Every structure is written in C-alpha cells, then in structure tokens.
Amino acid sequence: MHDCLIIGGGVIGFSLAYELSSHGARVRVIDQSKVAREASWAGAGILPPANLSTAVHPLDQLRGLSHYLHPQWAQALHKETGIDTGFRRCGGIYLARTNGEAAALTAYANLLRSEEIKVEELPLGDVVDYEAALGPLVDSGDLVKAFRVPGECQLRNPHHLQALIAACKRRHVCIDEQVSLGQLILTRDRLVGLETSCGTMKADRFCIASGAWSGKLLKQFDLSCGIMPVRGQLVMFRCDKPPFQHVLNEGSRYLVPRDDGRVLVGSTEDEVGFDKSTEQRVLEELADFACGITPALRDAQVERTWAGLRPGSFDGFPYLGAIPGLSNVFVAAGHFRSGLFLSTGTAVVMSQLIRQQNPQIDLRPFRVGRG
Ligand SMILES: Cc1cc2nc3c(=O)[nH]c(=O)nc-3n(C[C@H](O)[C@H](O)[C@H](O)COP(=O)(O)OP(=O)(O)OC[C@H]3O[C@@H](n4cnc5c(N)ncnc54)[C@H](O)[C@@H]3O)c2cc1C
Q1: Cα-based distances in Å from 96 to 124, 245, 297
Q2: How far apart are CA 314 and CA 227, in angstroms?
Q3: If residue 339 lies in a helix (H) or strand (E), which one and from where to where?
Q4: Is the torsion defined by CA of 120, 125, 127, 130 positive or negative?
Q5: What domains can you pick out in the chain, each with its CATH number?
C-alpha cells in the first residue's frame, strides 16, 4: 500500500515523487511504457526568467516559484546523486528580423521589466560583444532588434530526469514500467485501486501526471478536459565546441547550446494527434533557420532529429487539482511548452495539496474540470 500512486513517469510525475518522498511519503510511479522517454526527454530545457517576489497572477507565481527552485533542485540532485543536471544560467538573446517580431519583442521586454526582470536592449553594433557567432547576421543587415535576458537558464532535461529517478530510487520510490491500466475500482467518492496488467494496485491517493495522454485517462473518470497532444520537432547539430553561450530565440523558434558542443534547434507546433514522426521538409526548415542565425552551423553535422508530444491545454494553463467528486484523485498535467520549467513549482504545490496542506499558490485558475 502506497501513500500516493502517480500515473506517468515524466518530469511532472518524478518531480512530484521526489517532493512527496522528501516529506516521507511512500510513493509509486507507474508508466505505460518506459519512463522519461516522452515530452520530458524530447524537450529543449529552456527555463525562462521569472520573479516570485513581483508575481501577482497564480501562473506567474508558479513560474516565479519554479524559477526560484530550479537552482536549488539542481544543487540538491547533484549532491544526492552525483549527476549534473545541466542547469546553467546561460542567459538568452532574443532576436527580431521583421518589424512585427520587433514589436512583439519590445512588448515582451516591457512585460519582463514590469516584473522587475532584467532585460537589456542591445544596440545592434554591440550584439557581437555578447555572441561573436551572430556577427554574420548583424553584418547582413537583417537584424532589426535584439534584447539580452541574463536570467534565462537551461536544463539538460535527459540528465535532469536521470537525476530525479536516481534520487527517487534512493528514497525507495517504487517504479513500474510497461503497465497497462484496466478498470478503475471506485467507491462513491474515492478511487480505491486500479486494475492493471501487473495486478491490482492500491494506494491512499492517486495523481494523474500522464502528459499529453492525460485527457484519455480522464475520460475514464467521465471527465472531458482540454489537454491535447501538440507535436514539436527538433534538430540537433554536433559541433566541436559550443558555437555560442546564450539561448538564441526568434519568435517561437530557438537554438540551445549544450556544454559539449551540441546545439538543439526547435521547434514546431503540429496538431497531428499522437503521431511522433518527423517531417523532412520541416526539419530542413529548422536547419535553414538555424544556419540563418549562425552560418557556422552549415559546417556542423546534424546528429539527430526527433519529435515529442507536448501536453497542450485549451487555455494555456496546466491542470492542477483534485478531480471533482473524488477526494483522493489529483491531476498535474497540461503544461504545454513549459513543463520542464514549471515542474519544480508544480511538484511543491501538488505535494502540498496531496498532503492536505494549503498550497502556497491559489490553484483555482488551474482547477480540473474547467473545460
Ligand atoms: C520539442 C519540445 C520542446 C520543448 N521544450 C521545452 C522547453 O524548452 N522548456 C520547457 O519547460 N518545456 C519544454 N517542452 C515541454 C515539456 O517537455 C513538457 O511540458 C513536459 O515534459 C511535460 O511533462 P509530463 O511529465 O507532463 O509529460 P511526459 O514527459 O510526456 O510524461 C508523461 C508520461 O506519462 C506516461 N503515460 C501516459 N499515459 C499513461 C497511462 N495511461 N498509464 C501510465 N503512464 C502513462 C507516458 O508514457 C509518459 O512517460 C518541450 C516539449 C517538446 C515536445
């Protein structure tokens, strides 16, 4: 008998297991396939800046809390497991090549400033002082505006997942892979257990953290929700050494430099259901985009390409809370493009809720059953 059974072994499920087990809870994580192989593995690991002390809206508070916790978690996980999660305060540079992009960027910079987050507009001539690799873009005359956001960070998500899993195992979290769910064993207001391919699993509380698949699972509880898969495709280049230090952003696309010379280029938003295939044309467009920003990548090898399914939500907010009418079933899903970023804050507030404490953030905007 476990205190909490978490359905889904991605960053949300394991962050929650890590947090709950640090409070002494006996936790089990089950996954329908191998753990940590879906969106949480596929993502780029960009952690945008946020500020807990100025945040007013609960979503901004969740962002602020997550931003505050990430360096602490990276340090604690490294200490506990010896695994470097790749958390780096690398900074981000935001680029605009059209007037429309420049207007959107200026608005974003103003928003960050209103939250007292540091943003510097870079005179175009100064851009190369921060990233020499952007020299050809500046010289081409195509660059219209550039901002630098020093507080942007990154996480090497596969390493972060490895560290979380190792820490969970040290805390005796039970992990079961390749588990298919069958019937729910329900009383009037409680879930007692799950029939699964590995037998009946019982627990005091349950949490659905099944990413893009959460909507399917919630249907079994007669609940429709706006979580849907949104595919993102990525291209990874291999260079001898990192060609730049900052995350380079333009619109919804980005280049993320890893310490070992790899550069991730993403991404797309494709509504194609649960299809994780990649499209050659789209990958070529991403590669062209990357080479347009830093032509040095033309000489680099494309090492790997892949796609992952983000858990999109209809209003852009995650679902965090209890299933209406059931006192012991919770949901933590639907984090769309920010699940790696919001995972630390999500784990803390969901752990508080599941342990029957008052969550430190008002979770009403994230309530389950809102649509
Ligand atoms: C290309 C791409 C780039 C991204 N970049 C970033 C980024 O830079 N920064 C950021 O913060 N976020 C990013 N994201 C988003 C982020 O990856 C996701 O929001 C996050 O990983 C969601 O985590 P999760 O644990 O909810 O889902 P997942 O990682 O998908 O995990 C869900 C798990 O649940 C399991 N599961 C599903 N159904 C069942 C079931 N019935 N029974 C048991 N197990 C089940 C699945 O097998 C899976 O292991 C990106 C995503 C993609 C695809």
Answers
A1: 11, 19, 19
A2: 7
A3: helix 339-354
A4: negative
A5: 2-85+156-226+314-366 (3.50.50.60), 92-150 (no CATH), 228-313 (3.30.9.10)
**Could you tell me the sign of the dihedral formed by the alpha carbons of 144, 243, 40, 162, in that order?**
negative
C-beta separation of 247 from 86 below 8 A: no
pTM of the model as a whole? 0.98
Q: Is 40 in the pocket of ligand 1 (CB under 6 A)?
A: yes
Testing ligand 1's pocket by substitution, the residue of 154, 228, 337, 343 carrying the most ligand atoms inside 8 A of its CB is: 337
Q: What is the DSSP string of 59-78?
A: HHHHHHHHHHHHHHHHHHHH
What is the chain's pLDDT, residue by residue, as a tens digit (371 residues)?
Answer: 899 999 999 999 999 999 999 999 999 999 999 999 999 999 999 999 999 999 999 999 999 999 999 999 999 999 999 999 999 999 999 999 999 999 999 999 999 999 999 999 999 999 999 999 999 999 999 999 999 999 999 999 999 999 999 999 999 999 999 999 999 999 999 999 999 999 999 999 999 999 999 999 999 999 988 999 999 999 999 999 999 999 999 999 999 999 999 999 999 999 999 999 999 999 999 999 999 999 999 999 999 999 999 999 999 999 999 999 999 999 999 999 999 999 999 999 999 999 999 999 999 999 998 87
Both ends of the chain: CA-CA distance in Å?
33
Q: Which single residue is written with the structure tokens 């979380």?
A: 164
Pairwise CA distance, residues 146 & 369, whole Å: 41
Q: How far apart are CA 190 and CA 67, in angstroms?
A: 35
With a 6 A CB cut-off, is 9 part of the ligand 1 pocket?
Answer: yes
Q: Using CA of residue 60, residue 61, residue 66, residue 72, what is the dihedral sign?
A: positive
Say if ligand 1 is within 6 A of residue 154 CB.
no
46 lines ligand 1 (CB under 6 A): yes
Bond prior to 327 in cis (omega within 30° of 0): no
CA–CA separation, 328 vs 330, rounded Å? Answer: 7
Of 47, 233, 319, 335, the residue with max ligand 1 atoms within 8 A of its CB, to mutate for a pocket test, comes to: 335
